[in-house]
Amino acid sequence: MVRSRRELAAILSRAPLFPYPKRGLEQYVTDGETASELLWEAYMRGDIRGRVVLDLGCGTGVLAVGSAILGADHVICLDVDEGALVEAYRWAHSEGVLDRLSYVAMLVPDVWMRAVDTIVMNPPFGVYRRGADTMFLRTALKLRPRAIYTIHMSDRGTREVVRRTAQGAGYAAQILSTRSIMIPQLYESHRRRVYRVTVDLYHISAGE
Ligand code: SAH
Predict the structure, then answer these.
(1) Does the beta carbon of 16 lie inside 6 Å of ligand 1?
(2) What is the pLDDT of residue 49?
(3) Would the pTM count as exceeding 0.85?
(4) Of ligand 1's atoms, which has the minimum distance to the CA of residue 27?
(5) Distance CA 165, CA 187 (A)
């Protein structure tokens, strides 16, 4: 267990990189500061400790491992990329939280699972595959969790889509904060380039 968000951020900044990044899946690792902010908010609201948490599109596991460190009962790490899942598995082992994680290789939106309390995710932003962000959000809502903590591009169109999609499922979306993050170039093959994007961190919950 960690004592502060800062301590959590330091651990999460050790998340492994993707072994074979696939551009079509918009793979990049969420930085420790952003991941710890999202998880700390969830933790403070009582949505992590003792809960069943699903990390949708977990990649190498930054949000899943963070949830386990914050005391989740059981964390399900779901991604279509098996190579990324192996990295997530190894890292969870080295952080000593493997006993509370499960791994599922599956394609969103073809996911069904019952009894999930909380969903944490940093989904594809839909830059490469238009609408991938909304597809993740719809899939999360379909599972009827108590709360969803998610990250999306910060622009007026996306904000409206997130708000309406949540509302359509009987949930309310609230922006927790707006941050600037560095992500790899997603359009061109030149992998070394990174660029800055502004994102919103959301708390989506039922009946607020
Ligand atoms: N959540 C991780 C990874 C973010 S990158 C982190 O915060 O570091 C987005 C992730 O979504 C990648 O791991 C990618 O493999 C996964 N992904 C993209 N499309 C997917 C789909 N249709 N089904 C399942 N996983 C998908």
Answers:
(1) no
(2) 98
(3) yes
(4) 5
(5) 27
pLDDT computed for residue 20 by the predictor: 86
Instruction: Give, in order, the Cα–Cα distances in Å from 195 to each of 16, 99, 162.
Output: 20, 36, 23
**Contacts of 47 by beta carbon, 8 Å cutoff, 6+ apart:** 53, 117, 118, 146, 147, 149
State residue 205's pLDDT score.
Answer: 98
Expressed in angstroms and rounded, the spacing between residue 108 Cα and the centre of ligand 1 is 9
Q: How far is the CA of 172 from the centre of ligand 1 (A)?
A: 24
Per-residue pLDDT tens over the stretch 6-41: 999 999 999 999 988 887 888 899 999 999 999 999
CA 102–ligand 1 middle distance (angstroms): 16
What's the rounded mean pLDDT across residues 152-163? Answer: 97
**Tokens representing 89?**
């598995």
What is the distance in A from the centroid of ligand 1 to the CA of 26? 7
Ligand 1 binding pocket mutation candidate from 54, 58, 125, 139 (most atoms within 8 A of CB): 58
Going along the chain from its start, the domains and CATH numbers come out as 5-206 (3.40.50.150)
pLDDT score at 188 = 58
* CB 98, CB 27: distance < 8 Å: no
